[in-house]
Amino acid sequence: MVKTEVLQQYAIQLLAECFATCILVLFGEAAIANFKFAGQASNSTLPVGIAFGVGVFSAMMIGGPITGAHLNPAVSIALMTIRKLKPLQCIFRIIGQISGAFLAALLVYLVYFNQFNIFDGGLRQVTGPNGTADIFFTMPAKDIPQWNTFIDQFVSTGCLMIFVMAVTYEYNHMISDVAKPFAFAIVVMTLICAFSINAGAALNPARDLGPRLFGIFVYGWNDVFQVHNYFFWVPILGPTFGAIFGAWIYTGYTWLIKHYGHFPNTEHTDVDGKIDLGDIQTKYVDDAHKLQQKFTKVNG
Predict the structure, then answer these.
(1) Is this model's pTM higher than 0.70 or not?
(2) Contact in structure between 212 and 137 (CB atoms under 8 Å)
(3) Among the listed residues 182, 148, 173, 154, the one whose alpha carbon sits nearest the alpha carbon of residue 54
(4) Is 56 exposed, middle or buried (0-12, 13-18, 19+ CB in 10 A)?
(5) For 6-52, how does the pLDDT look when each residue is reduced to its tens digit (9 = 90+)?
(6) Which residue spans traverse the membrane (predicted)?
(7) In this structure, are residues 192 and 201 in contact, taking their beta carbons and an 8 Å threshold?
């Protein structure tokens, strides 16, 4: 039976993830809408990447002190599989993340409501010359098969998760806590610029599913989930399995480093290397030189 205090804590974490994810998706999707309605001739994804990057930084300022700002169900699920998050806690966070993305899509729609009407004449369309659904959720590029888009999302989110694990690794002293939000912002910006043409670089099931659920009220259930031969599963399962793979790859990597690397800045887990007080006794208690030699011998 889960205690009331624990449920309250999980509820607060849900709220924090909802608020933070809302800000992230709001910045990113507002940038997409602005780019689309402004009729930009450039095909560069850099402005959208910058918006999502700054969104990540802002979201971490909001949710970071409370939950670490996962902002992404794929990240939460991956951490749960390596026992860094409890299942019920993970469920609460995912609900918050999807809800936040839903609210962000609603805000984007309200802010740009007149722009939508100017663009499509008041007739909402998912695809085509006047289609606007790509503002809210991702779509595949023309003639790209779904297996290819799945691999795209698997690899890109796997890279994201490896970066998350590396930056937050307890023995990584290459980066300070102050610099971590900047690092996450830059890597998200980079991944969007590097992996956007095939499947829209969702990298985050909540970023796609939350706005897609909102899209039901604008475009209809069938159009939202059946478009592009039921593509909706790719930005959900691709990032999720990619993040799990990335988490386990990095966990295996650090396990090897800890056990066989013998580096001074990693945890020593060699069972045979445990210090026995009997091994460091010296004939003379004050003989510091001999004591130091004993320590050196025991620790390798």
Answers:
(1) yes
(2) yes
(3) 182
(4) buried
(5) 999 999 999 999 999 999 999 999 999 999 998 876 677 888 999 99
(6) 12-33, 45-69, 90-112, 150-169, 181-203, 230-250
(7) yes
Question: How far apart are the C-alpha atoms of 231 and 145, rounded to whole Å?
Answer: 10
Domain limits, the chain: 4-261, 273-300
As a whole number of angstroms, the distance between CA 130 and CA 180 comes to 40
Over the stretch 73-107, which tens digit does the pLDDT of each residue have?
999 999 999 999 999 999 999 999 999 999 999 99
Is 93 in contact with 13 (CB distance < 8 Å)?
A: yes
Taking alpha carbons only, the member of 123, 298, 98 closest to residue 208 is: 98
Say which CATH superfamily domain 4-261 falls into: Glycerol uptake facilitator protein. (1.20.1080.10)
Q: How far apart are CA 49 and CA 248, in angstroms?
A: 27
